[in-house]
Design brief:
alpha+beta; OB fold (Dihydrolipoamide Acetyltransferase, E2P); 2 domains; 2 helices
């Protein structure tokens, strides 16, 4: 009889551990991140593999007026995949990290 009592407790403990793990995974994905901002502009130059300079429209969410040059850092693979060239109109999704703008998305505009 004691074996049958232990077995349900073991299953209950395993179920509890599984639910606790699922809850922890759910919390892990909900870490608060800084918001992404949309920037529209024109690529002026790409002086490095991970950097583009953009002449952009006003970005009210960042408190920026239209500017001649904005430095945006991004993964070289992301910039290469977009195939942007000097003079291309682009729409960027950026996040502010410390004093830099980091590229998280880019697409050419007509």
């Amino acid at each position: 009889m004691s074996a049958s009592v232990r077995r349900p407790r073991w299953i209950l403990a395993l179920l509890f551990a599984g639910l606790l793990g699922a809850f922890a995974v759910g919390l892990w994905g909900s870490i608060v991140r800084p918001p992404a901002y949309e920037v529209r502009g024109e690529v002026v130059v790409r002086p490095a593999a991970d950097l583009i300079l953009v002449r952009h429209e006003a970005v009210a969410a960042l408190g920026m007026q239209p500017m001649e040059l904005m430095a945006v850092f991004g993964e070289p693979a992301l910039l290469d995949a977009a195939g942007v060239r000097v003079g291309d109109r682009v729409r960027l999704a950026v996040r502010q990290r410390d004093d830099q703008l980091v590229l998280i998305g880019i697409e050419k505009q007509p």
